[in-house]
Amino acid sequence: MHEPGAITSHLAAADTPELVRAPKATFLSVGGSGRPGTGAFYRKMAFVTAVEAALPGALRMSPSDACVIEILYWYPRQAESVEIEDFYTGNSIDLLEYRITTRVADSITHNAIVSARRDAAGSADDPGGEVELFTLPDSLVVQVMHHGPFKNEFETLARLGAFARERGLRRSGPHREIHIDPFTAQTPQDALRTILRDPVAWPAGLSNDHGRSPQ
Q1: Would you state the pLDDT for residue 124?
Q2: N or C: the chain end with fewer CB closer than 10 Å?
Q3: Predicted structure pTM score
């Protein structure tokens, strides 16, 4: 039997690839599609950030006043199946679908979300998306901390993919990026920290769609 990996803190990752178990977590989320980094993409980020800021403190899970944004990416079923190392090169990124999220307390209620959504509407509304709750189950993942510009993630993903492949593991769900540091379209990226995290499984446990759509 394979070693399942130690449970990691949700916002922790080493600078070298590792195999761990990511804990179950609950999120506020807004869906979208297309190329990351567009105006629509950043409006959705601002919307999630504003709703999270409007929640009572006991329901917020970010470690400081700055909202930690986490993004799940996947391709539609008709796209080519990709692994970790070629996630952003195996298909046109214009085909990407995504879910922009931030973690909240498991005890959050529908009424709290409705209230925060109403309070946030005046500061950063997104008419193209509705906030909803989303839960990620406890899962086996490979992960690594990426430092610096997003455009340099290709090299980090290549290392992470090689690490998984050497252990006979394949990607089994949406690619995840956890942005430890807040950012906007204007933020210099040299000092940004991003956890690159991919759920994985040994081939016998893979779903039929190779993780191209979220659970």
Answers
A1: 63
A2: N
A3: 0.90
